[in-house]
Amino acid sequence: MNPGVPSVLHSTRLLDQLRERIRYCHYSLKTEKAYVFWAKRYIRFHRLRHPRDMGKAEVESFLTDLATVRKCAPSTHKQALAAILFPYREVLGAELPWMTGLGRPRGAVRIPVVLSRSEVAALLSCTDSAHLVVVSLLYGAGLRLMECLSLRTKDVDFDRKVIVARAPKNRKDRVVMLPKPAIGGLKRQLAYAYSLWAADRAGKLPDVYLPDGVAVKFPRAGGSWPWFWVFPSPSLSMDPRTHILRRYHQYEQTVGRAIARAVVKAQIPKKVSAHALRHSFATHLLDSGVDIRRVQELLGHSDVSTTMIYTHVLASSAAGTASPLELLPDLS
User: pLDDT tens digit string along 86-145?
Assistant: First the structure.
């Protein structure tokens, strides 16, 4: 038995035990959905056999089907492998030697999409007013999309002109700048959020979601203004874990579609996502002479080698190097 696995799981069905263990490990809802999805596919692929009755051969045959028949990308292959091994280790308590012997595909190293300053300006000018503040912060503060959308009102400090990004990807809080051009729009956004918060309180709606036991420590926090969303959704939605109808923040897909519309309107011939604005933030800071360690801190990277990819964008040998086509003699 893996010593990290609780001796008693309250659920009896495998998938419910999987969900219970994922929540015990404080994984995100997105990770939970992905792991449950791959566990179901793995079990159905082998005609509903229980994982305890399967091992290395079955895992490899499933992954081989993904790679050779389904033609999945290396990133999908690695996600499926991680998801399948999780119940073996964390639910069944099996730490078997064959787990470390499974091959992991090597993903392609890709240069991030970076917009020029003029392209960013064009994109912002074409973004609809409902999403302009979000898009401005993605570029102006280098926030990840979920970091931005999950901001609480207490995380914005207008006096110091900073934003606190709470528990981002590496689960470390960090402080980023609050861009001056975004202050006016952000204040108007907070006024709109306050009107929704006041209406929710008057309507005695359920409190907003709070992370990692905060609701237990501070029972009234979920209904307080400091913990309300900066970018609340205009409609209520069902919490998939608690099944409580409450107000959540704006959805990632909504912002993604708004960016896609702005890209078309601005006639930018690049594949632009919300993360491309974060890439542009980092690249433009380095191009302005900001120290790479400072950029690493602003991005929240644990390792500076992750930040180094942006120096490769700037220092590409292709930029400024004459092509041999330019040096051919003119025979006309």
Answer: 999 899 888 767 776 676 777 666 788 999 999 999 999 999 999 999 999 999 999 999
Q: So where are the chain's domains? A: 14-101, 117-313
- What's phi and psi for 141, nearest 5 deg? -120, -5
The question of whether 275 is a catalytic residue gets the answer yes
- Topology (CATH level 3) of domain 117-313: hpI Integrase; Chain A (1.10.443)
For residues 145 and 183, give the distance between their C-alpha atoms in angstroms, rounded to a whole number.
18
CA atoms of 143 and 125, how far apart (whole Å): 20
Distinct helix (H) and strand (E) counts, the chain: 15, 5
Catalytic residue among 154, 169, 261, 265: 169
**56 C-beta neighbours (distance < 10 Å), count:** 13
DSSP-based three-state secondary structure for 169: coil
Instruction: Considering the candidates 26, 52, 171, 275, report the single residue annotated as catalytic.
Output: 275
